[in-house]
Amino acid sequence: MKMNKTGIFLIVFFLILGIAFVTYSLKFSSKPEKLPVISANTGHHVQPFAFVNQEGDTITEADVKGKIYVVEYFFTTCKGICPKMNENMSTVYEAFRGNDKVKILSHSVDPKKDTVSAMKEYSLRFDADPEQWMFLTGDKKELYDAARYSYLISAVDDTSVVDIESDFIHSDRFVLVDKDGFLRGRFYKGTDMNEVNQLIGDIKKLLKEE
After folding, report:
1. Each residue of 153-176: pLDDT tens digit?
2. What backbone phi and psi angles, to 5 degrees, belong to 155?
């Protein structure tokens, strides 16, 4: 009878020990999920830039160095997808409002009409803090070069061009950039709230990577 109790005790002891070992292994051996780097095999990253925000201040890559930021292209007089995109972008903004580690860069594709004052008036619709949500205008070629070569907007199938004669790059995609200037995650459809929620979740993952 004494041996039976000892045997049961040993079985229970080693069972508890095994469970504890497995739990410990899972906790410390599993690595945090990391977002993929877009074009990682080429070492692609955002190139230097200089645009003007809604306050008339020049914004360069130095202003977002070490920050996580979301990029979009739009124009203030757009009656198509832009209102929906920026309504959804405001959800991203509110999710991280006041967090200095997260910025939003909304670039104009129609800088001739999107003057500083026009961008300022537009930004007020969303109560956008210019330190966090920047509405950028500037030289058209430089804006378009940034879209094509830094943010790879042209890599996305785009069926939303409003004015072909004006050569508008008018993608409905949001682009996520990490603190080192690399594109991360995927190209998020700005008119789809499910993908916008995915973007919010992916920003949180990048914040945890730090």
Report:
1. 864 434 444 443 455 667 899 999
2. -75, -10
pLDDT in tens, 110-120: 999 999 999 99
Q: In this structure, what CATH number is given to the domain that contains residue 114? A: 3.40.30.10
Q: Are 158 and 59 in contact (CB under 8 A)?
A: no
Alpha-carbon span 6 to 52, nearest angstrom = 78
- Number of domain units in the chain: 1
Length of the chain: 210
Domain span at residue 120? 40-209
How far, in Å, CA of 39 to CA of 208, rounded? Answer: 22
Burial class from Cβ neighbours inside 10 Å (0-12, 13-18, 19+) for residue 84 reads middle
Q: Percentage of the chain with pLDDT > 70?
A: 75
Are 135 and 54 within 8 A, CB to CB?
A: yes
pLDDT range class, residue 25, cuts 50, 70, 90 = very low
